[in-house]
Amino acid sequence: MSQAGSSHRNYHDCHWVQVATCDGLRLDGLLHDETWDAGEKVTRRERTVVLLFHGAGANFYGPSLINRVGTHLFRAGWPVLRVNNRGHDGWHVAFRGGKMTQMGAAFERMEESVWDVQAWLGWLQRNGYSRVILAGHSLGAFKLVHALAQAPDACSGVLAAVAISPPCLSQSLFSAAAQGELFRRTVAQCQEWEAAGRGQEVFAAQYPFPMLISAGCYLNKYASGERFNFTHWHERLSPPVLWVYGGGELASHEALARGIEGLERSLPASQQLVTIPEADHFFTGWSREVCVAVEQWLEKYR
Predict the structure, then answer these.
(1) What is the pLDDT of residues 250-277, one digit of tens each?
(2) CB-side exposure of 246: number of CA atoms within 13 Å?
(3) Was domain 3-169+228-301 assigned CATH 1.20.1540.10?
(4) Which of 14, 70, 118, 156 has its CA 20 to 30 A from that of 28?
């Protein structure tokens, strides 16, 4: 789409949507599609929509890299659905199955993230979108590729995926890194808290990523062996995948760099790895380059 044509597209002309996961958690999102009408589905069936997943502690409505990518793609002519997953915001109260629970990046469980992807893909299918591109940043990117590997039947309508800086959640790599001793001490402390019934208590973790997190979530995310190390199962992903990382990010995170070295060595022909030199994990000052790389790679799926 030309620059002149894109200027007429109103990104604020959007539709608030909701979905319930299989465990009864309500999630919200925004659909940007100028042709959308809740009562009419036929004309959309062959359209391709981009489903965006935010990272840990982010959300679908705040400033983030994945939301900038979404804005860029919408202005380039793509329908876009920006959504929350259960790791939105750092800590919030949610109702799951009619019961109040603590949720957010500090309390989520990685295996449950598949339910969020399934719920949003189901919403798209019910509303006439049969062709979907998955795109996520950081932990949102990990959740998308994890769902593709763990629930391929539910992801049958996915044409391709864009994974921007997904973390390599490998206990062995974290432990072997220069900060491995700090990691092992943190794991041991979390195990003590968990055993004492304090798994829901939040503390300020320093490694592998600085954030407020509960002991139970820390163990699930970072100390589950290689269960969530996508470099061990990325080859069995059916849809084509574009992986995007920042060169500065890889240079500053030893465990991640080693994981991505393994990914690059075993990359199938259907997958591509793009590294943007000097960019950090959030692509500070480099978001335009990410947007352009994603748009160019996706052009063949229009």
Answers:
(1) 999 999 999 999 999 999 999 999 999 9
(2) 22
(3) no
(4) 156
